[in-house]
Amino acid sequence: MKHTTTLLALLALTAAAQAQAQNVVAKDPWVRATVTQQKATGMFAQIISSSDARLVEAKSAVAGVVEIHEMSMEGNMMKMRALPNGLELPAGKAVDLKPGGYHVMLMDLKQQLKAGDTVEVTLVVEGKDKKRESIVLKAPVRALTAMPAAAAPADHQHKH
Question: Can you tell me the distance from the alpha carbon of 85 to that of 67, in angstroms, rounded to the nearest whole number?
Fold first, then answer.
């Protein structure tokens, strides 16, 4: 009987560990299309982690270099910089990867990315326990002028 209880406890812990490993969701991923000879573009999405974590790496076969970036205003100048320590993902809070903010930068592109294509991007997330989880995204390529759905004028609601 003792062995059965121990086995059930181990199975419960294993199930809990597997559920923990799948605690990050990326919604509505997309990549901005490029023009001929353009060597860089961005990948955007909304990331939600059920526990405190950090986006530490991104990879894609379409680019020679993939980095996590931030765009921000410094005075009158828009600056873009890599986040070498990754991007914090606070538990239960949506983190938007969007034009003009945090994003995944795809550089040294191997080909032009056209609207209608799909790009595979792998995000690597590290939990507080230092365990890493990979999330493979199939991100549709949107037109150069594309903005996130939430930024579309039809969705704009002004509240006072």
Answer: 11
Three-state DSSP at 30 gives strand
Say if CB 58 and CB 122 are below 8 A apart.
yes
User: What is the CATH number for 111?
Assistant: 2.60.40.1890
pLDDT 10s per residue in the chain (160 long)?
Answer: 555 555 444 444 443 333 334 589 999 999 999 999 999 999 999 999 999 999 999 999 999 999 999 998 888 998 999 999 999 999 999 999 999 999 999 999 999 999 999 999 999 999 999 999 999 999 999 998 766 554 444 333 333 3
Enclosing H/E stretch for 67: strand 63-74
Please report whether residue 3 resides in a domain: no
Q: How many domains does the chain have?
A: 1
| Distance separating alpha carbons of residues 120 and 109, to the nearest angstrom | 13
How far is residue 144 CA from its own chain's centroid?
19
Range of the domain at 101: 25-142
Reference 87, options 73, 70, 71, 75; nearest CA is 70
Whether 14 is in a domain gets the answer no
